[in-house]
Amino acid sequence: RSGEAARMSKADGKILPFDPKRRQGHRLSEQELKNIETYLEICKISRQEAFAYTISCSDAALAMPIPKMTIQPLVEKRRAACFRGDGKDLVSISFQAEGTIVTASVVDNGYGIDPQVLEKLRNTEDCGSYGLRSVRERLRLMSGQHCQIKIQSEPCRGTRITLQYDVSQVPKEE
User: Fold this and answer.
1) Sheet architecture: strand order including 101-108
2) 34 sits in which H/E element
3) CA distances (Å), 97 to each of 10, 62, 93, 94, 166, in order?
4) Which residue has the higher pLDDT, 122 or 119?
5) What's the rounded mean pLDDT across residues 30-52?
6) How many helices (H) and strands (E) does the chain have?
7) Does the pTM of the predicted model rise above 0.70?
8) List of residues 6+ apart from 128 with CB closer than 8 A
9) Which residue has the higher pLDDT, 97 or 141?
10) d(C-alpha 73, C-alpha 110), whole Å
């Protein structure tokens, strides 16, 4: 148990503390994915959760920028939504890039989103979900109107949230 505590402490140091400046701006997808992996490892250790995850990223996408704290809130929500405790829970994260267009997906094999809630999330700018609203705003701050969020879900089959954004207008960070 002390080994687990040491691993958690080391992992926490990689992603915490979150001060306001660390949440602003953008970072490379590679760093965002490392933070997500660290977060998922902390979940597995601290909560003794039996779930699996996969992370994939094309070589082209590794060096692409992404707004800070964009993917992690989605991963947190999807991980919680898919946790059934049967040992078959899975969250998959992927990043792909083609030219200046980046596509990031978070997929789970969980319970899915209630169809009425899903319709509201898809059709309303102010969807009522702080996390999703925050993600949408971060993407717009970075890419202007050249971004979109797609949500697909089936009851008892899981959910896929896909972000697509254009990095051609992203200013270089100092």
Assistant:
1) 51-57, 89-98, 101-108, 158-166, 147-154
2) helix 29-46
3) 31, 9, 14, 10, 10
4) 119
5) 83
6) 7, 7
7) yes
8) 120
9) 97
10) 17
Q: For 67-94, what is the mean pLDDT?
A: 79
Where does the chain show beta strands of DSSP type E? 26-28, 51-57, 65-67, 89-98, 101-108, 147-154, 158-166
The single-letter DSSP state of residue 147 is E
Q: Is 38 in contact with 76 (CB distance < 8 Å)?
A: no
CA of 98: how far to CAs of 67, 101, 150, 162, 166, in Å? 18, 5, 18, 15, 10
Is 13's pLDDT higher than 80? Answer: no
Residue 165 Cα to chain centre, angstroms = 14
Tokens 């009425």 belong to residue: 116
AA identity, residue 101: I
